[in-house]
Amino acid sequence: xKIFIMRHGEAEHYAAxxxxxxxxxxxxxxxVAVAKACAQQGFQQFDKVxxxxxxxxxxxxxxxxxxxxxxxxxxxxxxTPYGQAExxxxxxxxxxxxxxxxxxxxxxxxxxxGYLTAEFVPGMVPPMFPTSGLICIDYxxxxxxxxxxxxxQP
Length: 154
Hints:
The protein has helices at 25-40, 55-64, 85-99, 112-120, and strands at 2-7, 45-51, 69-75, 103-108, 134-140, 145-152. By secondary structure, it is α/β, with parallel strands linked by helices.
């Protein structure tokens, strides 16, 4: 299966809470550029998209959903900035197996996106993701390991 992990677009620095920070115009345009590049790689539709409930992640999905589509969309409280990568990886493996997913896109945050990448690609140091950065992992559910197929940076 293919696991796509994307960090939300650039967000404003200040808001009433971290969860309420909104995308900047630059964050919107960079996210769209990454979505277009992903579509050019041949990935335009995902079996499932899982999005953090934080406003900047929700807005990132709204922006890129013009270019990328999903058969189902889920908002998940566990993929906020300090979610537990091991728990999220276990959840994703269970859902992928149960729902027979071939592709999933997660729209999340630092530091979780880096730790998740390292969970799916054993031996990899958690990478730093720029805002709007996206990585694609070829993942084997049976072997519970994957390799980086490509990454796209704005």
